[in-house]
């Protein structure tokens, strides 16, 4: 039986392990990061514009920093911008129903201590590779240069 005094220590240990795992996320295959000269808000706006210019769609946006701000807590800006398009979604699901969990694909905008922002994403080919589907790999190979172009346009 766990005492009440050891519960906070156990919770801290679990949280610490979780953060240690997250710090290695940039090491996942296909992860790419571009730094920008833009501040966080500007990079989010530029990314959304670049997504539209490349005829993709912003499906959703999540931001822990906005949620924290609503509670009066200030943390560095961060936003996950989820991007996809229905014709790719249909092809993805025809190729592999289990791969549906990967859509929409994501861009991650983060604010550095100097106020500038970076853009991180995983190449679609790396995201879909574990599914072992030739049609899915073909689709991902079409998405790779598209996502790279969106990223380049957003940070310039």
Q: Examine the coordinates and then state which fold CATH places here, giving the name of the CATH topology.
A: TATA-Binding Protein
Q: What is the C-alpha radius of gyration, as a whole number of Å?
A: 18 Å
Instruction: Quickly give the CATH architecture.
Output: 2-Layer Sandwich
Helix content: 40-55%
Explain what the structure shows.
This protein is of the alpha+beta class. It has one domain: TATA-Binding Protein (2-Layer Sandwich). The chain has six helices and five strands. A five-stranded antiparallel beta sheet has the order 1-5-4-3-2. The longest helix is centred in the last third of the chain and has 22 residues, at 134-155. The radius of gyration is 18 Å and the shape is elongated.
Summarize the structure.
With 156 residues, the protein is α+β, with helices and mostly antiparallel strands. The chain has a single domain (28-155), classed as TT1751-like domain (TATA-Binding Protein, 2-Layer Sandwich).
Topology:
Blueprint: H1 6-23, E1 31-39, H2 40-53, E2 57-62, H3 64-70, E3 78-84, H4 86-95, E4 105-111, E5 116-122, H5 124-128, H6 134-155
Antiparallel strand pairs: 1-5, 2-3, 3-4, 4-5
Distinctive features:
49% helix, five-stranded antiparallel sheet, TATA-Binding Protein, alpha+beta, 156 residues
């Amino acid at each position: 039986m766990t005492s009440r005094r050891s519960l906070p220590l156990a919770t801290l240990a679990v949280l610490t392990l979780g953060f240690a795992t997250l710090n290695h996320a940039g090491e996942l295959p296909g992860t790419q990061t571009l730094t920008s000269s833009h501040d966080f808000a500007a990079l989010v706006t530029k990314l959304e514009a670049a997504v539209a210019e490349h005829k993709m769609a912003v499906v959703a946006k999540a931001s822990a920093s906005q949620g924290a701000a609503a509670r009066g807590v200030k943390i560095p800006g961060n936003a996950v911008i989820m991007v996809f398009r229905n014709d790719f979604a249909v092809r993805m699901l025809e190729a592999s129903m289990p791969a549906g969990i990967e859509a929409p694909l994501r861009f991650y905008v983060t604010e550095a201590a100097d106020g500038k922002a970076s853009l991180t994403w995983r190449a679609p080919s790396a995201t879909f590779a574990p599914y072992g589907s030739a049609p899915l790999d073909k689709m991902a190979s079409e998405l790779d240069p598209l996502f790279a172009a969106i990223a380049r346009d957003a940070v310039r």
